[in-house]
Write a structure and sequence with these properties.
alpha+beta; Ku70, Chain: A, Domain 2; eight-stranded mixed beta sheet; two-stranded antiparallel ribbon; 4 helices; about 30% strand
């Protein structure tokens, strides 16, 4: 069964919900390139160590951290800091804490997010009141948003709830600031030059 978390709105019972991922390939399909022998046997990718003595199957690698003396350091002993050297707070997984729908963003602000994953909100209970609340908020030009962490994370993503027909789509991504650079040409001077060119009389004496 998919993992569920509690989605809470003010004044209504919590909804036990899960996330069903969908991708571009779910809509349009995908192409898969396979390598096979002449007899049709499919080949699998493997990696070879630098000395050529060991074969490592695909997905047979993992990454670890070592200290300066090449000793293994467990992930639990590692924490991230900001540029001031202060520890970054750990965001607990939504599957442990649940989600309170309290924060909203303007619909236009959605275009300031780099969306990485998309899901459909699913539940074994009726979500119609939640869908109606999200649709009413959309009619006001807003979306619900919350911090998303599948696992405990120092770098949670942003989740945005978007009503779409009969479903609620969850867009997961990161917000970035749009920077307006402005035109590289002096627009006023450009139009002034155009107007001056239009005012000049054209003489064909040198042409004919």
């Amino acid at each position: 069964m998919p993992r569920t978390f509690a989605l809470r709105m003010k004044g209504v019972p919590a909804y036990p919900v899960s996330l069903e991922k969908f991708e571009r390939s779910d809509l349009y399909g995908q192409k898969v390139r396979e390598r096979r022998l002449d007899n049709g046997e499919r080949l699998q990718l493997a990696r070879l160590t630098w000395d050529g003595r060991h074969v490592i199957p695909d997905k047979g690698l993992s990454m670890i951290y070592l200290d300066e003396d090449k000793n293994y350091v467990p992930n639990a002993d590692i924490y991230d800091v900001n540029k001031e050297g202060e520890p970054i707070p750990l965001t607990t997984s939504i599957f442990k804490t649940g989600v309170d729908l309290e924060t909203t963003i303007p619909v236009d602000e959605f275009f300031q997010y780099n969306i990485e994953n998309t899901y459909v909100l699913a539940s074994e209970v009726e979500l119609q009141p939640l869908k109606e609340a999200c649709k009413a908020l959309q009619d006001q030009g807003k979306f619900y948003t919350f911090k998303y962490a599948y696992y405990d994370s120092y770098y949670p993503s942003d989740a945005i709830i978007i009503p779409h027909e009969k479903d609620l789509v969850i867009a997961i991504g990161e917000r970035f600031e749009l920077v307006w650079v402005g035109p590289t040409t002096d627009i006023d001077a450009l139009f002034k030059d155009i107007e001056e060119d239009e005012d000049e009389d054209i003489s064909f004496e040198d042409v004919w």
